[in-house]
Amino acid sequence: QEKKIFTVQGPYPIIRHLLRARGWVERKLPSAGRQLQQHHPLHYLWPPAEEEEEKEEEQCDEDPNGIHDLMSYLVRDRLPNFIWTNFLEATDHELLQQDHVVNHYARVDAFTTKEGLCLSLQNLPWIEQADPNTFFPRCYRLGTTDERAAFIEDFRLTAARSLLKLALEGAGDRPVRTKQVPNSAKGAGWQRSRVSHPKHSTARSGSPLYPELVEEALEVCKQHLGVLRHQDIDRGTPSPCRTCIDWDRFLQEYYRVAHEGAGLVLTRQQRKQCQNLLRRLAEQLPQLGMEGKLNVWILKPGAESQGRGIICMTRLEEVLQMARGFTAPSVQVGRWVVQKYVEQLLTIFGTKFDIRQWFVVTDWKPLTVWFYQDCYLRFCSWPFSLCHLERARHLCNVSVQKWYKTSPDQDPRVPPDKIWSNTQFQEYLAQLGQADAWHQVLVPGMKAAILNALRSAQDQVGFRKGSFELYGADFLVGEDCQPWLLEINSCPTMRPSSAVTRRLCANVQRDTLRLVLDRKNNPTCSIGAFELIYKE
Predict the structure, then answer these.
(1) Which CATH code is given to the segment(s) 110-136+344-535?
(2) Which of 94, 173, 294, 488 is the most exposed place for a label (fewest CB within 10 A)?
(3) Rounded to 5 degrees, what angle do the CA atoms 269, 251, 284 make?
(4) Is beta strand 89-90 parallel, antiparallel or unpaired with respect to 42-43?
(5) What percentage of residues in the chain have a pLDDT greater than 70?
(6) 386, 196 in Cβ contact below 8 A?
């Protein structure tokens, strides 16, 4: 009668405990089959990766007196009023009453898969006055003919720009791996991205290439600049650069310079031209700074999670061959996306990290978004290097890093459990003299990126009053502290991997229930660390 029957499916003992403490009664699912009976309007599907976690959860769900089992038996024929599950396929939402609460929306793959987010953000300029290139590394779906061609052109143009950067670097007679660090920051372990390239130590290493190579790169970049200055909102504007040079030969020579240490001959006039052209391109290309000079791209299955199948690559032909030839059962043909790797990123103690940031959507009409003010950082197990593209150096997912032992070369100041809280990160930034970066650059940037992603996909989502969803967005941090959105997860893990995540995951689950349940009856109740950042 009080409508306090709930169902929890998945590794969520905190949710179960908190609901029972509120006086709710659980309708437990059958231990065999893991599905509600067929007459129930909701069917549940379990991702294989969650099975071990669920078994552990069952073992920890103590009910020594059998009270919860008895109460569950008494409500076995009642529909739950609150459903929290790790994956939900709605087969008949019409049978749900309006006051039934479910922790998922339908068709959120428009922004929670790599392929969906890539496509949705391409349409953002038509919806909002916002440029996805300012917060989302450019991305292409290789299964689409037009986008595959656009990626090939982008790779070539990036190679031309990168060659100009390498030429300038060599003309200055400075080692590639040298990066000047502010004196005030050295003691705190300040690390920007370093290109550790033993083969490419100076411009004089290797044999010099023909002088026309820089001229070709300059010509390509000049033509591209002309296109950018007259380009409309459609990024598919044709480029005159597709046939202006022999691209196969140019790329092979670029590879020699970028990856094999070949030197470049640069005249004084060419040096001035390179500097001027790159400055003008920076005014048109928001990603010119973060893209670096080695043309690293990251190839991802379009609908996978937890770092499955992700590979970093530096050669065009290898990217295309990999996308064509990969036949894993979990990857449908043509569902690959390729994304520009953020080469100029902020590292901590020489190690790459990313940020897992939670937010909740409680309504899509009007769109209502709550940002969680606590988050955590995830570190890689090996030191960052762009000449070594192993997953242990470049994929920060806990599900990836748990398979790697910490490298002997790793700075001992990197936390052993590879996790930091946002508070620890803010303290670190303060040591670098960047105390304001968190509140003035990072947090506003993450909020804006999340809202733009949601607005770009809003028309695709299956809206339902009474539902809500907790998401986990992943961000990289550029060397200028600008956040770059990588992906949004519809079912962020709540299984703790450290003392930090044990505390934060428990807190975000507690505060989510406050937000979606307690606040209905008491609009002034505490919602913990949640902050309303948008309501249409």
Answers:
(1) 3.30.470.20
(2) 94
(3) 60
(4) antiparallel
(5) 78
(6) yes
Q: List alpha helices for 365-491, DSSP H.
A: 391-394, 398-401, 422-431, 437, 443-457
The 10s digit of each residue's pLDDT in 254-282 is: 999 999 988 888 888 999 999 999 999 99
Amino acid at residue number 338: V
- State the Cα–Cα distance between residues 108 and 87, nearest whole angstrom: 12
d(CA 81, CA 4): 6
Please report how the helices 316-325 and 145-171 are oriented relative to each other, as an axis angle in degrees rounded to 10: 150
Q: What's the DSSP call for residue 533?
A: E
Residue 99: CB atoms within 10 A of its CB come to 11
CA 506 to chain centre: 22
With beta carbons less than 8 A apart as the criterion, state whether 356 and 476 touch: no
334 φ/ψ sector (left φ>0, alpha ψ -120 to 50, else beta): left
- Integer Cα distance of 215 and 210 in angstroms: 10
Yes or no: say if 114 and 337 are a contact pair by the CB < 8 Å rule: yes
Structure tokens at 337: 């996306």
Q: Is 346 helix (H, G, I), strand (E, B) or coil?
A: strand
Give 324-353 pLDDT, tens digit per residue.
865 444 444 448 899 999 999 999 999 999
Say whether pLDDT at 365 is over 80.
Answer: yes
Give residue 208's pLDDT: 61
Place of tokens 């995540």: 501
Q: Are 279 and 164 in contact (CB under 8 A)?
A: no
Q: Which two tokens stand for residue 24?
A: 């709710």
**Which structure tokens are listed for 433?**
């003299």
Boundaries of every domain in the chain: 1-29+62-101, 110-136+344-535, 138-172+208-341
Q: How far apart are CA 393 and CA 294, in angstroms?
A: 16
Contact 6/78 with Cβ under 8 angstroms?
A: no
Q: Is residue 264 within 8 Å of 209, Cβ to Cβ?
A: yes
Reported as a single tens digit per residue, the pLDDT across 283-301 is 999 999 999 999 999 998 7
Span 95-117, pLDDT tens digits: 466 678 999 998 999 999 999 99
pTM more than 0.90: no
Within 10 angstroms of residue 207's Cβ, the number of other Cβ atoms is 10
